[in-house]
């Protein structure tokens, strides 16, 4: 080994220390995955080299025979993974192996409780990677040189995984990286050809370039002068093989490599398209949402290959934003090898690929919903909120996306989002031609809303929408399967054929009979309301506030206000239940002052029941106390 110069000791970023600790403890039962991760990195490194060499062939330094070699030393208890990929400069090693660049990492790490059991599931949202080497090694050394740098600019990185690492500049003749793991006491099992071969076959068979192990000596022939190597994996790009020949486990392991995930995907879709456009895609639905799903700068998109040559990670031009959780590869025969992000954004070929891949993704999700309802529940928990962005972003697929949505409802699920629109339509009453829904802050709040009274009485299901995005979603979702959506808290509720002619006649008569009371209420509430009318929505409550047909709902109003926007003032409609004893009592009240107080109390209570806050809570309390005093006098 050569001389080391410019040696320095540096501390890991805090997040790395936390991750290391978490990983070593939570992945111990699955420790062999370290090899998969290091091979995955070596494969990425050769992909990057091949790509950069398209423009700068001199990077190959005469050697285009890309491969990964795994060797071991039983005595020294080491395992070595070596690649001739892009390699790392000293600066690369310091940043890539000393920090985590993902945005939102430190917030994510704040979720750690210190309780290993509780924390261990968090690692699934984060992914592992290089640091998994420390599960089995108490010292890790990296010898690397970036392709294109002079031999004297190699780097030696080493660490015991305990808070700091050392870097030094070394001479390294060959480009690429060599990772040496000094196995912990008790992990010597990995310094063994059979063990390594099995782990490679199990997790890394799909890696597209050869992974070589030293050929086992049989003991019969003379020991060769030089080590002989043999390829242990299949060494062909998985997506180029016919579907029928690929086992589920292979698809799953390949996912972990491209998805930088360590859990299995929920499903996948592998397709070869021929004709005007030629490309192969392999798309996956992950099993779990990454911690940074809602981070703007979080990595997303597919891994792009052109004729088997890796071009870029995170090509996000192939899928809409609401499908940003989909992972996988797309390998095109039509794009040119020097395609860039700028070109991708303008190329009409990309548009048609995008719409086809969007459709494939939706089909895959639809299939999951149909065939694996339990899995679909997990999918919905992880990605439902993101899918809800779909109808606004993707007009063409609105109906298809709507079919994938799941809602809480008055009919089943106790607040769980399990009801599809097809379920709902299947349960519609005779004469019902609308899909009814109510939005609000929480299930607990909406499930007892007075707005539901008439629906409960008539046995009509209402969808209960309480996610922050819901009201916005519903402003884009107006119809499904030819049936329009009706917000039950909005406008003058018309139940259509669900109300019989007699019902309607009776309603008109009551409205007429209560014209006097209506006028009195209107006078008492004055500018607080847009309108006062007899309600058909109520059975148990005395009064309710409805939102005007064109007005913003409460949820949107609160979101806009919270973001500091000026929201146009809109007044509610006060509806009263003429057969409620309180209203009857009110009707009989001769004292106009008392009538006014009672009316305002009813109005404020209706606002509270709708989940709104009172404009003048002190006045409400005052009026209520006045009444209480009178009562107890
Ligand atoms: P990820 O692979 O998800 O980026 P890792 O923790 O596995 O995360 O690796 C961190 C980074 O270290 C890689 O992104 C890469 O920049 C660098 N790296 C790791 N292994 C190698 C290697 N064999 N050759 C070159 N760079 C590497
Ligand atoms: Mg990695």
Plain-language structure description:
- The structure is a single chain.
- The chain has 633 residues and is α+β, with helices and mostly antiparallel strands.
- It has four domains: 5-234, 2-Layer Sandwich (Heat Shock Protein 90); 239-376, Ribosomal Protein S5, domain 2, CATH 3.30.230; 398-495, Rossmann fold (3-Layer(aba) Sandwich); 501-632, Heat shock protein 90, C-terminal domain (Four Helix Bundle (Hemerythrin (Met), subunit A), Up-down Bundle), CATH 1.20.120.
- The protein is built from 24 helices and 22 strands.
- The strands form four sheets. It has a nine-stranded mixed β-sheet. Strands 10-11-14-12-13 form a five-stranded mixed β-sheet, with helices on both faces. Strands 15-17-16-19-18 form a five-stranded mixed β-sheet.
- A hairpin with an 8-residue loop joins β4 (137-145) and β5 (154-159).
- α2 (33-55) packs across α8, α11 (348-371) runs parallel beside α14 (398-404) and α23 (592-609) crosses α24.
- The protein is elongated.
- It starts with a strand and ends with a helix.
- The model has no long low-confidence stretch (mean pLDDT 92).
């Amino acid at each position: 080994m050569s001389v080391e110069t410019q040696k320095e000791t540096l501390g890991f970023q805090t997040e790395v220390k936390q991750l290391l600790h978490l990983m070593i403890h939570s992945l111990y039962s699955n420790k062999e995955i370290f090899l998969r991760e290091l091979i995955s990195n070596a494969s990425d490194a050769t992909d990057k080299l091949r790509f950069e060499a398209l423009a700068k062939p001199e990077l190959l330094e005469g050697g285009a025979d890309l491969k990964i070699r795994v060797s071991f030393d039983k005595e020294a208890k080491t395992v070595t993974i070596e690649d001739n990929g892009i390699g790392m400069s000293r600066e690369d090693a310091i940043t890539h192996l000393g920090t985590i660049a993902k945005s939102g990492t430190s917030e994510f790490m704040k979720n750690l409780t210190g309780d290993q059991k509780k924390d261990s599931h968090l690692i699934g949202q984060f992914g592992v990677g290089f640091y998994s080497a420390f599960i089995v090694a108490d010292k890790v050394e990296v010898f690397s040189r970036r392709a294109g740098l002079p031999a004297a600019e190699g780097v030696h990185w080493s660490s015991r995984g305990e808070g700091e690492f050392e870097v030094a500049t070394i001479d390294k003749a060959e480009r690429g990286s060599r990772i040496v793991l000094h196995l912990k006491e008790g992990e010597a099992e990995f310094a063994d050809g059979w063990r390594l071969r099995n782990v490679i076959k199990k997790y890394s068979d799909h890696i597209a370039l050869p992974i070589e192990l030293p050929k086992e000596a049989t003991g019969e022939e003379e020991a060769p002068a030089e080590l002989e190597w043999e390829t242990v994996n299949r060494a062909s790009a998985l997506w180029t093989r016919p579907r029928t020949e690929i086992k589920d486990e292979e698809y799953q392991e390949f996912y972990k490599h491209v998805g930088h995930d360590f859990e299995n995907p929920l499903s996948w879709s592998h397709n070869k398209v021929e004709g005007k456009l030629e490309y192969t895609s392999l798309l996956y639905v992950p099993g779990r949402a990454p911690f940074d799903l809602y981070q703007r700068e979080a990595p997303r998109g597919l891994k792009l290959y052109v004729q088997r040559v890796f071009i870029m990670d995170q090509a996000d031009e192939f899928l809409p934003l609401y499908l940003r959780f989909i992972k996988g590869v797309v390998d095109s025969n039509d794009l040119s090898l020097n395609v860039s992000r700028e070109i991708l954004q303008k190329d009409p070929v990309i548009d048609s690929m995008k719409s086809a891949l969007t459709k494939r993704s939706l089909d895959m999700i639809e299939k999951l919903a149909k065939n694996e309802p339990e899995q679909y529940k997990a999918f919905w928990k992880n990605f439902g909120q993101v899918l809800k962005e779909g109808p606004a972003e993707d007009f063409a697929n609105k109906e298809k996306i709507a079919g994938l949505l799941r809602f809480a409802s008055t009919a089943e699920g106790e607040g769980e989002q399990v009801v599809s629109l097809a379920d709902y339509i299947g349960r519609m009453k005779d004469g019902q031609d609308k899909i009814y829904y109510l939005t609000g802050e929480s299930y607990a709040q909406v499930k007892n809303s007075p707005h539901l009274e008439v629906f409960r009485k008539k046995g009509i299901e209402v969808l209960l929408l309480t996610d922050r995005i819901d009201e916005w979603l519903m402003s884009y979702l107006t119809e499904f399967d030819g049936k329009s959506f009706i917000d039950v808290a909005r406008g003058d509720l018309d139940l259509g054929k669900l109300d019989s002619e007699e019902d309607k006649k009776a309603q008109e008569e009551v409205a007429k009979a209560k014209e006097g009371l209506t006028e009195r209420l209107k006078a008492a509430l004055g500018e607080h309301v847009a309108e006062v009318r007899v309600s058909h929505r109520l059975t148990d409550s005395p009064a309710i506030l409805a939102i005007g047909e064109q007005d913003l709902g409460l949820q949107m109003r609160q979101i806009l206000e919270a973001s500091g926007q000026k929201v146009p003032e809109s007044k509610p409609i006060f509806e009263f239940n003429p057969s409620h004893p309180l209203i009857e009592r009110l009707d009989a009240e001769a004292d106009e002052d008392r009538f006014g107080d009672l009316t305002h109390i009813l109005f404020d209570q209706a606002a509270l029941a709708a989940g709104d806050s009172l404009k003048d809570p002190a006045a409400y309390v005052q009026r209520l106390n006045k009444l209480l005093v009178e009562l107890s006098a």
